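Sequence only, no structure available. Ideas?
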Amino acid sequence: MKYIVANWKCNPGTVVEAKKILNGYAKSIKKTKKAAAVACPPACYLGLAKEILKGGVALGGQNCHWEAGAFTGEMSAEQLAGAGCKYVIVGHSERRQKFGETNESANKKIKAVLAAGLLPILCVGETREERIAGNITDAVERQVKEGLADVAAPVIIAYEPVWAIGTGQACSAEEAKVVRQFIINITSEKIPLLYGGSANSKNAASYLREAGYDGLLVGGASLDPKEFAGIFDVAKNL
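Reply:
I predicted one. Tokens follow.
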């Protein structure tokens, strides 16, 4: 099974635009046993997404808090489950860099996501500075081990080299393959591994076939329904 996950981030700006993307997904992506398509729109569009996609494309949250209660502006894993989500992205580099997400908080969120019956997608990856300093595996190992501390239930890990996200400078398949094997060595063959960072329909096959990843976490390209469907087609036909 391949997982093709669309992370819309804080896009699009209007309901009209969201409907256009979702209708494009519904028209172009059909359920198959070979690949699973997952849409992670902003929380305000989850109800709309559930109505339009009708289960043909699974839903995911972009983030959650590890508790319910007096946390203004947050959403709990339980609420995401109630909104129809099956997956939750945890520890994305933008959450880490811009909102103070840590390995410890990611770990708490993963446990909350699992308790709600959802599947967490833990994002890990090195910054440009860490890459230049030769600390790629050190950074990834720390994020994986601390993020999954005392976690025994199934998870998905997404390797996203931070320097490649939104830059159009995708990591080479060869380098991505090395990191994939490293993650396997410190975790388990059974954990699905995704690649993210300027993934598109042109380089999808290289990450899925040559680098051996089990799927892709797609950012900007997922806002174009034809492009995202093209990525999904690559995955289901491998």
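The CA atoms of residues 3 and 155 lie 12 Å apart.
Hope that gets you unstuck.
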